[in-house]
Amino acid sequence: MRSLDSKDEKKRLRAKREDEKRRRDATIAQQDLDKVFDGDWHGSAGQFLLRWYSHSPHHQRLLLATQDGLVLAAPLRRVSVGREKHLRIVARLPATEATLVDPFSGEFETRMLLIRFQDGSWLRVDTEELRSNLHMYVLRQPLAGS
What we know:
Elements: H1 7-30, H2 44-55, E1 62-66, E2 69-75, E3 87-94, E4 98-101, E5 112-117, E6 122-126, H3 133-140
Antiparallel strand pairs: 1-2, 2-3, 4-5, 5-6
């Protein structure tokens, strides 16, 4: 349908996308979300990150969000083919310890989510797709304090 838009409509849409990208990038920089975690090695996120790869040398994790918390699965060793068959649960984070949040509260379509720990520390998680099922799960959850 965009191909039927007039030049002015296409120009407005392009300007809107560029403005959204600038606002998103500014928010990322302002909140230091371009980092893997909040930077505090003594916080829960830093300690979790130190243990993260001791569970599995594979760089990718499958993250499952449930009402009870978060579950991470990974192959126990490096595999390149059929890694889905080799996934094992490597970590469980109860909801009382950590929650999954969209740092933009749905304002921007990104691949980014945060695992936010009770002490306020966080670990960045990048999904394979924009507005993944995890994003939709997070956006359906009631806001804290609501």
